[in-house]
């Protein structure tokens, strides 16, 4: 969900910035102040990272030290590229693109998550490449010579060994130098195999190499072919045997972006196979998982409820419904999710729908952007402040 973090925060920012807000609650002046506050928050985090952690992956905010958490390739800088461009910061965007082009290398002995590396690093490089190449973004870099595209292609090639499985569904992790480790787990999350099509597909189009698009589409087909008779997917699957090792079906944890990328792959590439899969998957989700306005988790075969739980990753769903044109249930669900937000000041990771209280052990809020994305899309659809 992390590439989304960058994009969604930008969307929230953009929403505040681009529109004259004249609703009862928020004046134009207040909207400007909110905009400036968002920008200040971004620079607080970005400058703190650059000062104390760069070129390591992430900043530890309490000790103010850097840490390599994903692969050791200045992750936060790559993750921040499109936000810098969106803020109109030509200077920092240009400097970051140049530094990454000169210094980041992927021929490193690091075992990385295929999912996280795709959505954050591959996605970050590709979006920055497109922004830096295009006059219409206002961020075109004259000296730019496709350095980030070449890095993206190199990185994607290093992940290809993960897809060499009987089901086509990739291993969860891959070593960038040696391919898949000998003792790598064969169990992966549905979202891990189904959230790669946008980035690999865009890379395929930019490099004229259909392998990238085919291999990730094949992974989605591998998952969808193993759906239950009632068109639900489980949470974890064995990439060799194709057996579901965790059969709880839901729209949140471990599955969420499988649904998201089906629809977005259709919207981005116009490939109707994705739309066809999405329509069936969505219909089943609305039939078996939706208990207006909440969503529960059920056994993928029997449809018996296993968890009457809101989890904060579910909050992307109303936004997805807007993209699909199903706005009415999106409004009701968003209101329900937002009521949890209002109750605690943010959404806890888990909220029990039976006791209407925080699920034990799930009090935390790891800065998830899903509810903000849904709020943004609903605003775009309804213009309701
Ligand atoms: C790669 O890293 C692993 C563990 O970090 C180490 O055991 C191995 O020797 C390294 N291989 C090479 C070729 O550097
Ligand atoms: C891909 O193909 C198009 C059209 O044939 C061409 O204009 C473009 O330069 C090619 N791109 C690459 C990276 O080869």
UniProtKB/TrEMBL annotation:
Its EC number is 3.2.1.-. The keyword Endoplasmic reticulum applies. Residues 1-23 form the signal peptide. Gene3D superfamilies: 1.50.10.10. GO terms for biological process: carbohydrate metabolic process; endoplasmic reticulum mannose trimming. Its main location: endoplasmic reticulum. The active site is at residues 116, 256, 349, 370. GO terms for molecular function: calcium ion binding; mannosyl-oligosaccharide 1,2-alpha-mannosidase activity. Keywords: Endoplasmic reticulum, Glycoprotein, Glycosidase, Hydrolase, Signal. It is an enzyme of class 3 (hydrolase). GO terms for cellular component: endoplasmic reticulum quality control compartment; membrane. It is found in: Endoplasmic reticulum. The keyword Transferase does not apply. InterPro entries: 6hp_glycosidase-like_sf, EDEM1/2/3, Glyco_hydro_47, Seven-hairpin_glycosidases. Belongs to the glycosyl hydrolase 47 family. PANTHER family: ER DEGRADATION-ENHANCING ALPHA-MANNOSIDASE-LIKE PROTEIN 2. This is alpha-1,2-Mannosidase.
């Amino acid at each position: 969900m992390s590439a989304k973090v960058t994009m969604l925060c930008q969307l929230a920012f953009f929403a505040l910035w681009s529109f004259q807000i004249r609703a009862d609650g928020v004046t134009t002046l207040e909207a400007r102040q909110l905009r400036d506050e968002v920008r200040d928050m971004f620079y607080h985090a970005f400058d703190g990272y650059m000062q104390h952690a760069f070129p390591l992956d992430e900043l530890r905010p309490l000790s103010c030290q850097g840490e390599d958490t994903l692969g050791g390739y200045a992750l936060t800088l790559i993750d921040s590229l499109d936000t810098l461009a969106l803020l109109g910061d030509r200077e920092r965007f240009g400097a970051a693109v140049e530094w990454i082009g000169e210094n980041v290398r992927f021929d490193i002995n690091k075992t990385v998550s295929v999912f996280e590396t795709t959505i954050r690093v591959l996605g970050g490089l590709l979006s920055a490449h497109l922004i830096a190449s295009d006059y219409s973004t206002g961020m075109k870099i004259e000296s730019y010579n496709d350095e980030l595209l070449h890095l993206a292609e190199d990185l994607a090639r290093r992940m290809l060994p993960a897809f060499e499985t009987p089901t086509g569904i990739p291993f969860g992790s891959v070593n960038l130098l040696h391919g898949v480790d000998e003792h790598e787990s064969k169990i992966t999350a549905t979202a891990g195999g189904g959230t790669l099509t946008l980035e690999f597909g865009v890379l395929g189009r930019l490099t004229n190499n259909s392998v990238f698009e085919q291999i990730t589409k094949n992974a989605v087909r591998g998952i969808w072919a193993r759906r239950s008779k009632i068109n639900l997917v489980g949470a974890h699957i064995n990439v060799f045997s194709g057996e579901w090792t965790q059969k709880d079906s839901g729209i949140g944890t471990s599955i969420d972006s499988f649904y998201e990328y089906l629809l977005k792959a259709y919207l981005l590439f116009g490939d109707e196979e994705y739309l066809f899969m999405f329509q069936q998957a969505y219909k089943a989700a609305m039939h078996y998982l939706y208990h207006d306005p909440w969503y529960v988790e059920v056994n993928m075969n029997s449809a018996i409820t296993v968890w009457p739980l809101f989890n904060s990753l579910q909050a992307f769903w109303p936004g997805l419904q807007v993209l699909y044109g199903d706005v009415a249930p999106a409004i009701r669900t968003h209101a329900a999710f937002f009521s949890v937000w209002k109750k605690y000041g943010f959404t806890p990771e888990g909220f029990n729908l039976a006791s209407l209280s925080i699920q034990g052990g799930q009090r935390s809020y790891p800065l998830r952007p899903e509810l903000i994305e849904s709020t943004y899309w609903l605003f775009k659809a309804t213009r309701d402040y």
